[in-house]
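Progress against Task 2.4 (sequence-to-structure conversion) is shown through the following example record, which the project officer requested during the mid-term review.
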Amino acid sequence: MAKKWGLVLGAGGSRGVAHAGFIKALEEENIFPDYITGSSMGAVVGSCYALGLTADFMKGELLSLKPRKLIDLSFAPFRNKALLRSKKVRKKMHSYLGDVTFDQLKIPFRCVSVDVISGKTKVFSSAEKVLDGVLASSAIPCVFKPVAYEDMLLVDGGLKCRLPIDEIRDMGAEVVVVIDVLGDFREMKGKKRLPAMLFRTLDVYDTALAKEKLKNQSPDLYLEPNLGDMSQYKFKKLDFAFEKGYELGKEAINKIKQLIL
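Structure tokens generated for the chain above:
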């Protein structure tokens, strides 16, 4: 009997398009995870996949995205707690996810975010709306408006939990496969302006925390697409990211089969 296996889709901004490419390779081999977890962009792709959207559909949507379709400048950034509002992002994601709850998805899925009030990780699941969870998980601090949810103020899951490994084991996964689109720390290039320094600070913290967690959580298969110096903060080279994810998936198919069969 095949083992129950889980697919962990890590945070990574535009580099996360590689997740859709990896899923495309799985689809071609008729291999489907029993569970999925995601953080930030991994939550976006993971939720759509768990809902039943195909990799080709996601590729078309992701590659057609333009910054102006998502950028919604705030006229009161200090009161808004971010440079951008989230109305355009919410509208776009609602067109895919609607008002579906986690327990209505075709594949069991959970995503993570961070409550900046308590500092704790918030895991979305069960009867909660997928849209709320995904928006919270992908709300980059100081860029997108934090999501007010119950008594929490939620931001990007990648801030504290880039790779939700423990969460997928809690779901019942016997085998854990991790896709880490960010990988190791890369040298900083370009001008060191204020936004770049903010993101760089987050990257330093995130990379160190992810490394420590990997040592303790030990996934059965850790995979990292070869995305070079592609920036996670720019809408460029998206087709490249998809193809690299697809290549990684094709290379990993036999390893996954060996783990689960």
